[in-house]
TrEMBL record:
Enzyme Commission no: 3.2.1.52
Protein known as: beta-N-acetylhexosaminidase
SUPFAM superfamilies per record: (Trans)glycosidases (SSF51445)
A Pfam family reported for this protein in Swiss-Prot or TrEMBL: Glyco_hydro_20
UniProt keyword list: Hydrolase
Keyword match Zinc: no
Enzyme class: hydrolase
Lineage start: Bacteria, Pseudomonadati, Bacteroidota, Cytophagia, Cytophagales
Active site residues according to the UniProt entry: 191 (proton donor)
UniProt source species: Catalinimonas alkaloidigena
Catalytic activity field: Hydrolysis of terminal non-reducing N-acetyl-D-hexosamine residues in N-acetyl-beta-D-hexosaminides
Key word Nucleotidyltransferase present: no
GO biological process: carbohydrate metabolic process; glycosaminoglycan metabolic process
Annotated family: Belongs to the glycosyl hydrolase 20 family.
Amino acid sequence: MNPRFSRSLLLLFWILLWARPSLAQLPLDSLLLVRGFCIGSPQADGVADFVKFIDNELAPRQVNTLILRIDYNYQYESHPELRDEGALSKADVKKMVEACKRHGIRLIPQINLLGHQSWASKVTNLLRVYPQFDETPAVQMPAHYEWPNEDGLYCKSYCPLHPDVHDVVFALVDEITEAFETDAFHAGMDEVFYLGEDQCPRCSGRDKAELFAGEVTRIRNHLAMTGKELWMWGDRLIDGKTTGLGIWEASFNNTHRAIDLIPKDVVICDWHYERPDPTAAYFAMKGFRVITCPWRNPDVALVQVDDMLRFRAAATDEMKDRFYGMMQTVWSGADDFLDGFYGRKKSKEADTQTAWNTFRTMYTKINALDKGK
């Protein structure tokens, strides 16, 4: 085992063993700096409904950060060929911007960069319009997708070394961050299975950790030129084999070593959905601000809130503010979530195992912590 990783694990165990929360009379802003909510953006005809949700549900629960997964659901002017059909207009976006301003909610857009350039049997807009950016052009999309498969296909990636790819994606990033009047951008970058592939004439033979770190750093540096932060998912920075976390929540292709190669001002969104694995302590020890992210298991979310509070209470002055907070994630569009949240359609899942029940449960706990009211 890598000795640096062993030392990190020892410190993690110390935190878990000895951490004791000291929460008496602390206002909520001192306990959880980020109280977040991440969801797919609404369709144009659902914007008014979503604005009501911001006003009536997010703001009263003291949510202070909203990440909207936009991808191509915006009427881009720099690259109109990449727009989704019926995409959000600038006027639609401004309605959500104004709602967030009313309540002091930081609004951060997301476009999936590097990975998640396809889903199931469908190539998404970037590689559909610019197939030359594909890291694995020889891998054909199946008529009926199944996992596992011979190609190891989960989602396609763009080639981070293609000489033209950043001209396109950075134009989108600049346009969407301007439209959202934001000082941060979420680049996704989770579940990257295709990287440094042998058949790629640019990436073949290169270190996958260096390729991943290079792309993170390039995106971060582009944003930093205009004073913006990079946010990203953290799974590719965890060793899936050593930790036993597996191929989805962590890396099996050695990108985890990039954690020591990327700038420390990147904000890490650390997701674990079925177990409350305490990897927030690992990211914080590596120097990053980290946000723990549940999804649809309310019991897991409650443990994760307790862990975040405990880590923060026990941390040194240098470490404390790296334990940045909590963020509910929703892996559907806003329209579907609101249907479930307001009971407008029946869920196929157990009533408790839903993103909307987890959201209610987690924020009931978080709001009960507020001693500053």
